[in-house]
């Protein structure tokens, strides 16, 4: 489902160049649930952005569901992302002036008549249909994260990326949100890649990857705990 080959990404800051991805290869099957762990600054967000078509690598390719993401032009790539990829950002990134329902409607806002029904259904799947008319400021952190999950799954994507989805939540909410996310992905057979600092949560996945200094290694699920 995801075939990433030889990804390189570096950033230039003044005269210095920082190499963040050093030739990363990653192959994920349909429906696989993968946790990506590693220290701060290891390049996890950069890798997720690159896999999701949000950050072009300087070298290498990303093929999702048979389509080479970076071979597509801007509009076609955006349309492909909208159709196939759901992304849950660090810090939710909800629009503060829109209600929960309107936030979930954003990805499909380009004129689809069934957008509202699909958004309501997605809110229902995350258990928040009673909060549809609330603004983000009227929701708890865990509820805001669930709205962000609803927004990511509303288009029934084949691939879901989640960047530290429990980073701002307490232990109980973290476990609930992680169970919800992995459960939804399994239900719809979406491939799921979750970045987390918390190895204790990674036991829910099929695979665990450890990222350090721009490279990834396979670990046994649960191996990083303790
Ligand atoms: N746009 C950018 N310009 C310059 N440097 C960047 C940029 N984005 C990321 N970096 C650098 O790349 C490195 C990796 O960043 P990245 O956010 O991918 O790490 P991370 O593993 O997700 O970290 P964290 O767990 O703290 O979120 C860091 O040293 C960061 O400073």
Describe the structure.
It comes from Haloferula sargassicola. Keywords: ATP-binding, Nucleotide-binding, Transport. By secondary structure, the chain is an alpha/beta fold. It has a single domain (2-219), classed as Rossmann fold (3-Layer(aba) Sandwich). Helices cover 29% and strands 28% of the residues. β4 (59-64) and β5 form a beta hairpin. α4 packs across α5 and α5 (141-153) packs parallel to α6 (171-187). The longest helix has 17 residues, at 171-187. Adenosine-5'-triphosphate binds next to β1, β2 and α1.
Q: Quick one: CATH class?
A: Alpha Beta
Radius of gyration: 17 Å
Shape: globular
Helix content: 25-40%
Helix- and strand-based class? alpha/beta
Poorly predicted runs are none
* Count of spatially separate domains: 1
Described by strand count, sense and barrel closure, the largest sheet is:
6 strands, mixed
The set of bound ligands, ions and cofactors reads: adenosine-5'-triphosphate
**CATH homology superfamily:** P-loop containing nucleotide triphosphate hydrolases
Query: What's the CATH architecture?
Result: 3-Layer(aba) Sandwich
- The number of helical segments is 6
Distance between the termini: 32 Å
Mean pLDDT: 90
Main sheet: strand order: 6-7-8-3-9-10
Instruction: Tell me the number of strands.
Output: 10
The H-and-E topology, N to C, reads as EEEHEEHEHHHEHEEE
Q: Which percent band covers the strand fraction?
A: 25-35%
At the third CATH level, what is the topology name? Rossmann fold
Pfam families: ABC_tran (PF00005)
Protein name: ABC transporter ATP-binding protein YknY
Organism: Haloferula sargassicola
Keywords: ATP-binding, Nucleotide-binding, Transport
């Amino acid at each position: 489902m995801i075939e990433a080959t030889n990804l390189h990404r570096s950033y230039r800051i003044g005269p210095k160049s920082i190499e963040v991805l050093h030739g990363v290869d990653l192959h994920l099957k349909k429906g696989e649930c993968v946790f990506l762990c590693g220290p701060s600054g290891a390049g996890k967000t950069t890798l997720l952005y690159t896999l999701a078509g949000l950050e072009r690598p300087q070298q290498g390719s990303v093929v999702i569901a048979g389509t080479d993401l970076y071979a597509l032009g801007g509009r076609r790539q955006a349309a492909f992302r909208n159709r196939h990829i759901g992304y849950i950002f660090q810090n939710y990134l909800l629009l503060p002036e829109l209600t929960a329902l309107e936030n979930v409607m954003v990805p499909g806002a380009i004129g689809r008549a069934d957008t509202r029904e699909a958004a309501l259904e997605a809110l229902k799947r995350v258990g928040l249909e009673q909060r549809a008319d609330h603004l983000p400021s009227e929701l708890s952190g865990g509820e805001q994260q669930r709205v962000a999950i609803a927004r990511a799954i509303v288009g029934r994507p084949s691939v879901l990326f989640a960047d530290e989805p429990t980073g701002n939540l307490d232990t109980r909410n973290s476990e609930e949100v992680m169970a919800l996310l992995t459960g939804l992905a399994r239900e719809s057979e979406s491939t799921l890649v979750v970045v987390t600092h918390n190895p204790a949560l990674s036991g829910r996945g099929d695979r665990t990857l450890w990222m350090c200094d721009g490279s990834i290694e396979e670990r046994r699920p649960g191996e990083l705990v303790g």
